[in-house]
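FAQ
Q: What does a multi-component entry look like?
A: The components come first, one per line:
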Amino acid sequence: MSNTIEVKRTRQAGPASEVVDISIPSDQAFERLVRDGAVAVAHWLGFSEERLADMQLAVSEAVNNAIEHGNKNDSSFRVGVRFIVRNDRLAVQVVDQGGGLAATRLTEGRPSIADKLEHGEESPRGLGIYLIEQLVDDVELQSDEQGHSFIMWFNLAASGEEGADEHHD
Amino acid sequence: MSITIEQGPHHTVIHILNDSVDALSAREIEQVRSQMREVTVLDFDKVLFINSAGISALLKLVIEARKHGQQLYAINVTAHHRKVFEMVDLLRYMPILEEEEYRARVSGAA
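Then the predicted structure of the entire assembly, as tokens:
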């Protein structure tokens, strides 16, 4: 089960009209599959190329964060990604199975590359989360003992030249 | 091989052939550190995607260049990647060269 990839599309009655689920093993080798899935959803929703690139990067960062910091690179865990089209917004929910409330948190401003360079450190912490905050319209983080849920919101009206209701089947 | 390297006595041009600069390609990018020269240019012409793991690999090249007083530049950067580099303040340490500037830098260092 841990090495399977699952993709499921469902139509739901009620406020969430369209849902696509992707589930991958917690391994960076599979992160690109989710990234490609994000591109497919963005095309289907008529995102502009720039908005598509923003979403692809934000989803990549959230999935990598779930693998590294949520599931702590334990490949027996999974990362679930749910794309939900709801009225004029797209929600992308990334869920890991790593417990612990403090493993992921939102940032406070831009991580300082300059400070890190002065001290010879190579990777400012929080760079991925900072990018997500810059690229999406809204972000929400929930944590409990079962894991973390990262929800990124994209306003469809601002995402492309076509209307939010003109989805491409 | 997802990287090709052109070298002169004082310059190196690193062509990244992988379409993603991410966690999977980061190690190979980091390994070019030993081949950097007085002027090093990273060519992103084939690159379609860069994330923070890839940016961390690029930062290692920035650190290496600063350690040895070398200059590091980027060419063929898409508008989206330019925006991302600006967001993380990377352009201060790895400026983007236009074609003419690139030719001048490489021929000046040759």
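Q: Is there any commentary attached?
A: Sometimes. For this entry: The two ends of chain A are 30 Å apart (CA to CA).
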